Amino acid sequence: VNNDLNTDLTTFATELADAARTVTLRYFRRPLDIEHKTDTSPVTIADRETEQLLRQRILQRFPEHGLYGEEYGQHGLEQRHRWVIDPIDGTKSFICGVPTFGTLIALLDGSESIIGVIDMPALDERWVGTAGQPTRFNGEPCRTRDCSGLADAALFATAPEMFQGEDAQRFQRLVRRVRLRRFGGDCHAYGLLAAGFIDLVVEADLKPYDFMALIPVIRGAGGVISDWRGQPLGLGSDGRVLAAATPELHERALVVLNAD
Amino acid sequence: VNNDLNTDLTTFATELADAARTVTLRYFRRPLDIEHKTDTSPVTIADRETEQLLRQRILQRFPEHGLYGEEYGQHGLEQRHRWVIDPIDGTKSFICGVPTFGTLIALLDGSESIIGVIDMPALDERWVGTAGQPTRFNGEPCRTRDCSGLADAALFATAPEMFQGEDAQRFQRLVRRVRLRRFGGDCHAYGLLAAGFIDLVVEADLKPYDFMALIPVIRGAGGVISDWRGQPLGLGSDGRVLAAATPELHERALVVLNAD
Q1: Interface mutation vs chain B, best among A182, A190, A192, most B CBs within 10 Å
Q2: pLDDT band at A36 (very low <50, low <70, confident <90, very high)
Q3: Going by C-beta distance under 8 Å and a sequence separation of 6 or more, which residues neighbour residue A73?
Q4: A153, A179 in Cβ contact below 8 A?
Q5: How close B197 gets to chain A, by Cα (Å)?
Q6: How confident is the model at residue A40, as a pLDDT?
Q7: Which of A219, A253, A260, B4 sits at a 20 to 30 Å CA gap from B144?
Q8: What pLDDT shows up at residue B39?
């Protein structure tokens, strides 16, 4: 019964991603007014209109569910089921015509993220994770790569300015141990990890709508995702995220991040 | 006559890009052995096979032309016409499954870069520049954006480690003046500039095969491209590149890069 319910909810989540695409792709690479929020991150009418559409769809279908979105805040957070959505992850990429922006959709059952969608509209790539099932990349099951040593690992992060103060040193300590480091991923990096193309994503300063959707995707592909202390991610997490292709690699990255 | 010749050569350059796609896309997101060159940059069989194919085609059609490629060096550099090619620009992206890698093809007439192709196989995007003609983005004429002030400019660079020593400070000085900075572009950033989505690309530590193809693309779209002293780029340039959407923006960026 639980599996059937999860399948229905997963189907609904992918329908949400389909709907979001119609809005984001209509605005992508078109002239847009850009506002700057209080935290100076850019936001456009595309972010707002996409989130409004997703809210509408969710409210219509599941009026009893809670909802937490990047642009319009939260309601019903006391509910068992809560949707956590980021209409455009990588707004900077979006407004610069870079096709690696994504839409993130998560469904929480209690504190557990049971469904996650990483959708890349302009790349026509989609990762769907459902608790207890293999993650699917464009409909096909996918797996992380069998990488257990830091010296073999390719590490991604969206931007160096994520890492402030001591975090910058902790991140650099890890970078010195890996084979390759690349900036500029946005949520696409987590999809690449789930599909076995890279091995580590290490980020900080993320919000729940940036990471809740990643959890079922990474786990269902055989990877591990946590905060920098190895604790499970949740709505109360501190915004530091470590995703790894294997438990061994995750453990080794944790040791380096937390070394004195 | 000169225009007809340039049109024929441009057609041939795009045929080269078509041929390169068949190789790069065959290897993209497939398991690959990665070697590390003496400068530690990664190289794969995809880089080597693509360059071999392009060399073969050029030699067959224009045996009298010179050729300079990233992987197999140069010959005939004393010739009037010389091809300068980078089979895979953004090998790091390529080996990580990131679709923003590209193929760069330039033709020099004397010291002048008269034809440039920026081809993005996995994105199905192509910019073609021919001296004296408007740059084409996927077949359609494109223009840079009308951005003249640093405070309005979006600036891209591939990675922070490009900027060593004093260059890092010069780059940071410019970053503090612009609206937005993003890492992770590879050659795609120059295409985005030519198509009017971003306004500045500032890089260092580039080789001639990284930048010779960019020149006709940027110029034919109304932009300006030079080294950090404002001098034209050539085979003997020092690897610092500044591309701007407008002459005014280019001048202002030069002033900041060269301020004491």
Answers
A1: A182
A2: low
A3: none
A4: yes
A5: 5
A6: 55
A7: B4
A8: 57
- Buried b / exposed e over B141-163, threshold 16 CB at 10 Å, is ebbbbebbebeebbbbbbbeebb
pLDDT per residue as tens digits for the range A181-229: 999 889 999 999 999 999 999 999 999 999 999 999 999 999 999 999 9
Q: Which residues of A touch B42 (CB under 8 A)?
A: 180
Instruction: Indicate the pLDDT class of residue B40, thresholds 50, 70 and 90.
Output: low
Cα separation, A24 vs A29, in Å, equals: 10
Determine the residue type at B98: V
pLDDT at A202: 98
Half-sphere exposure in the Cβ direction for A29 (13 Å, CA): 13
Pairwise CA distance, residues A119 & A102, whole Å: 5
Interaxial angle between packed helices A45-61 and A2-27, expressed in degrees from 0 to 180 and rounded to the nearest 10: 150
Complex ipTM over 0.95: no
Which residues of A are less than 8 Å from B123 in CB distance?
Answer: 99, 123
DSSP-based three-state secondary structure for A86: strand
Cβ of A184 within 8 Å of Cβ of B184? The answer is: yes
- pLDDT value at B44 more than 90: no
B residues 36-65 lying closer than 8 A (beta carbon) to A: 42
Distance from CA of B146 to the nearest CA of A (A): 12
Q: How far is CA B195 from the centre of its chain?
A: 14
Q: Do B159 and A183 touch (CB under 8 A)?
A: yes
Task: Give the torsion through C-alpha atoms of B164, B167, B168, B174, to 10 deg.
Answer: -160
Main-chain dihedrals φ then ψ at residue B253, nearest 5 degrees: -65, -40
